[in-house]
Amino acid sequence: MRLAVATQPRTLGAAYERCRQLHARHGRTYYLATLLLPRWKRRHVHALYGFTRYADEIVDDLDSTLDRAGQAAALRAWGERFFAGLRGQPCEDPILPAVLHTVRAFDLDVADFERFLSSMAMDLHTDGYRTYDDLCGYMEGSAAVIGTMMAPILESADPPAAREHARQLGLAFQLTNFIRDVAEDSERGRVYLPEADLERFGVGRADLASGQAAPAVRELLAFETERARAHYRAAEPGIELLAPSSRPCVRVAFDLYGGILDEVERAGYQVLARRVAVPRHRRLGVAGRHLIAARAAARAERRVSVATPGR
Q: Which residue in 152, 156, 159, 311 sits closest to 243, CA to CA?
């Protein structure tokens, strides 16, 4: 697999650096947003990204020499190494020491990791979902839990409320991915848009692999785009609940990922022949607008840290 590396004893710093490299290479929008976080928070976000990326790569690596059974075994082994590490067993892995350190540092809910791995396993035997409720069952593990994993790192004065908003943002991001990547997912034999919605608009699976979005496909994607925006609206109030030093990062991710939907609309929902993306100049412009606020919040946080012994 592309992400595989020989397992050997690594320092904690090296594990965090490996996660950062994965994040920088494969999650450009998220990585750009993460640069607005205080340095001490960044590495923990990189660790969570490294965990999710590695598991996702086991499932989705088209160049893998493993069959489905082999991929399932590799995913199980990855999860077993993670949970064994949580129990205190030695972990000779290039990524997991950073993940384990982050879990312990923030007392993250281990059930979120269990749900994530369960959803990744579903990708090896499930190629579609009948209703949106069924799809949400999958997205709870594949995306919502990533938001709830992040919430303690980003800090909030109201953790329960922040957790729900983070969950909604995870769903918004995931559904945005499904809309943008519908052709790519179809090539893998998967359709993440609900079957009931395809039937409602008269769209067949073959239509999603045609390379040209017919009017019915465009109507379907417009419907799903509005559904994704409802999740963004539900998530947005949570940004102000976060610590000031975390808000710029999440706002940038919110704006840029939501911006993918703008680009999908601008392309007339023609996403079957090419991958729609937010232009680089817009990504840099959005991040730049929040850079001053991020630096000011980080400086204020450092002053509080110095004035509060033991922080």
A: 156
Q: State the CB neighbour count (10 A cutoff) for residue 72.
A: 17
What are the phi and psi torsion angles at 91 (to 5°)? -130, 100
Could you read off the pLDDT of 183-217 as tens digits, one per residue? 999 998 999 999 999 999 999 999 999 989 999 99
**Helices 12-26 and 96-106: crossing angle, nearest 10°?**
100
Produce one character per residue of 205-217: b if its CB has 16 or more CB atoms within 10 Å, e if not.
eebbeeeebeeeb
Long-range contacts of 193-198 (CB under 8 A, 24+ apart): 193/135, 193/220, 193/224, 194/129, 194/130, 194/131, 194/132, 194/134, 194/135, 195/128, 195/129, 195/130, 195/131, 196/130, 196/131, 196/132, 197/132, 197/223, 197/224
Tokens describing residue 169: 């943002």
CATH class of 12-300: mainly alpha
Q: Where are the alpha helices (DSSP H) in 181-279?
A: 182-187, 195-201, 215-235, 247-266
pLDDT, tens only, 84-107:
999 999 888 899 999 999 999 999
User: What is the C-alpha to C-alpha distance for residues 37 and 150, in angstroms, rounded to an integer?
Assistant: 12
pTM here?
0.90
Please give the structure tokens belonging to residue 144.
Answer: 């919502």
User: Taking the domains of the chain in order of start, what are their residue ranges?
Assistant: 12-300
Eight-class DSSP state of 170: H
